[in-house]
Amino acid sequence: MRKKYLMTPGPTPIPPEVLLEMAKPILHHRTPQYQAIFKEVNEGLKYVFQTSNDIVTLASSGTGAMEASIVNLLSKGDKAIVIRGGKFGERFAEICSAYGVEVIPIDIPEGNAPQAPIVRDTLAKNPKAKALYVNLCETSSGSVYDIKSIAEITKKTSTVLVVDAISGLGADDIQTDNWGVDIVVSGSQKGLMMPPGLAFLAISQKAWKAMESSTLPKYYFDLKKAKKALDKTDTPFTPAVSLVIGLREALRMIKEETAEKMFARHKKLADATRESVKALGLELFSKSPSNAVTAVKVPAGIDGEKLVKNLRDVHGVTIAGGQDELKGKIFRVAHLGFMEKFDVITAISAIEIGLKELGYKFELGSGVKVAEKMLAEG
Ligand SMILES: *Cc1c(COP(=O)(O)O)cnc(C)c1O
């Protein structure tokens, strides 16, 4: 017997109530029964995305929505500004390049957040840039970006602001309408407590208008087709019925908790995780740490890949390592979605045990002690 603990920034654990919903017999999607569910899900999504804009739901992983935000807005030869501070900023740039869009990169060192002046300058130098692509949480470095200040800049221009909130949604605040974010992209397997397979785009009027002139090729991800169907509470193709039914339950749970308390919970878990790893003598990787995931520098003399592997294969606790150049140099522990205090305490305990086994010198329990102190009440 080995109990498993999933503590990665996607996929994340799924509440039993949601799992049971998804086990129910399939419905046909062109029925009033399914339509009622889809309607409720659309309302629930608007609550989480903090918007009254249309939200398109696609049957794909999050990257499908990233691609949709490019092929529906842009045309070959267009310019797009892309903030690249890690793997997921790079992904936007890669998709742009694949479609012949000219990328104007704003490169920032991994673990840093983009500052408003450089965004303002780049936009001023490239007033023809049709869109600006940025992440809310750059999951690869555990960094949250200040979307509010970026939106203040794009709001006054014709440039469409597209934010990848795939991992950030639900953990790091994003006030789509209040801040003036044009497109917010997300996926199901992170803060929304669902399996992978659904992707979302919240789309403003400014973004819909900008889409009218786009000529990049698209078919399955044609958002105009999706919008036409959405206006009739329908989808152009067969939706992922069981996932949408599961999502209704997950969204009900979020509504019951309230968005305010959900953000407060993520902040509390993130704070406790950061302080606990610091108490172990470890350093955070990010200068702007996200409330979705904590990236931690692997201490000198310790093999970070071995730590992640041992925790998974010997102890049943799955955390994430570093990707690409950060392989072996950081580990990442998520406190995202269906998580509460004992999940953080378990994660810190597992990290302590794993580090001890690899010969790292520290007092066993010193991290857990901090986590328990910080999380005990509430
Ligand atoms: C997970 C993630 C993605 C990729 O999503 P997929 O569902 O794997 O396609 C993109 N961006 C960010 C910030 C992510 O965390």
Automatic annotation (TrEMBL):
Aminotransferase class V domain mapped to chain residues: 5-323
Note the superkingdom of the native organism. Bacteria
Offer one example of a GO biological process linked to this entry.
glycine biosynthetic process, by transamination of glyoxylate
In terms of InterPro entries, this protein maps to: Aminotrans_V_dom (IPR000192), Aminotrans_V_PyrdxlP_BS (IPR020578), PyrdxlP-dep_Trfase (IPR015424), PyrdxlP-dep_Trfase_major (IPR015421), PyrdxlP-dep_Trfase_small (IPR015422), SP_NH2Trfase/AEP_transaminase (IPR024169)
Look up keyword Transferase and say if it applies.
Answer: yes
What GO terms are given for molecular function?
Answer: alanine-glyoxylate transaminase activity; L-serine-pyruvate transaminase activity
Q: Which residues carry this modification: N6-(pyridoxal phosphate)lysine?
A: K190
**Can you tell me which residues bind substrate?**
R332
Q: Which SUPFAM superfamilies match?
A: PLP-dependent transferases
Signal sequence extent: none
Cofactors that this protein relies on: pyridoxal 5'-phosphate
Q: Which UniProt keywords apply?
A: Aminotransferase, Pyridoxal phosphate, Transferase
UniProt similarity note: Belongs to the class-V pyridoxal-phosphate-dependent aminotransferase family.
Q: What is this protein called?
A: Aminotransferase
| Native source organism of the sequence | Candidatus Aquitaenariimonas noxiae
